[in-house]
Amino acid sequence: MNINEILDDDKITAEEIVNVLIQNSVDHKIEKYYIVYIDFLGMKKIMQTYTDNDFCTVANKLATLVESIISGNASNEQLGIAHIDFHMFSDNMIFLCKDFYTLLDFIALLQRRIIIQLKMIVKGGLDYGSIYYYKNHFLLGSGLVSAYDIDENYSHPAIKIAKNISKEYFRNNKSIRRISDDEYIVDYLNHSSQYDIYDFAIEMMLHKKLVISNLNDFKNGPDKILFKYKWLQRYHNMICKEMNLEEHFINV
Predict the structure, then answer these.
(1) Looking at residue 196, what DSSP letter applies?
(2) Per-residue pLDDT averaged across 39-48, rounded?
């Protein structure tokens, strides 16, 4: 019996109505995911101050960038690469994946392209936890809250990884950087060095130019923004020192 038959039947009982409703109910399960919550720094101001045409240009560039990386990952799923789900709302992005290494590789590439190609910076949190995921409808759970809390309590322009995950995966992983005992991040610059060293050198040069440009633009404040680019300067120079790239040092 379906809902239309119920409406046409004057003799239907309350129990029968409940049984039909249960049959038609959603029955998704809680699952464990690695989850990244990303906050675009400055995106709210862009949305508030840009014209519709200018903002549409920014949004299209961002959508093209994300789609290109998502598509690349999807094409490799037949080779055993784990699937990644993506959602964006306001100035936030959320990514879900069952495999940590797949998600780490994806996020490192995404963050690097956002800062180099779009000249935008992000921060965020990466954690593992319980998620209720009903595709294109609901994304809820303690895992999402935890990743959000990491981002909310973190001020540096980087993706901070939950400490328990970092301890598990840090050893011999060049895409995770230990900043302090309580601060492990997605090392998006060092991630690049593991592939094409020529591309890495070009990306370091572009990264240097962007950081210098913003250090100069915000040298008189606001201090909150200047602080973020000074942190990026220290991070950039840390990589240069390790890779003997003195020509790419930032000395502003």
Answers:
(1) -
(2) 92
Domain annotation covers residue 196: no
Residue 84 domain flag: yes
Residue 43 corresponds to which tokens in the numbers above? 């995106």
Element (H, E) at 197: helix 197-217
pTM: 0.85
Nearest by Cα to 121 from 207, 220, 195, 248: 207
Choose the final residue of a domain: 159, 188, 217.
188
Q: Which has more confidence, 196 or 200?
A: 200
Sequential DSSP letters for 128-164? EEEEEEETTTEEESHHHHHHHHHHHT--SSSEEEPHH
- What residues contact residue 71 under an 8 Å CB cut-off, 6+ apart? none
pLDDT bracket for residue 60 (50, 70, 90): very high
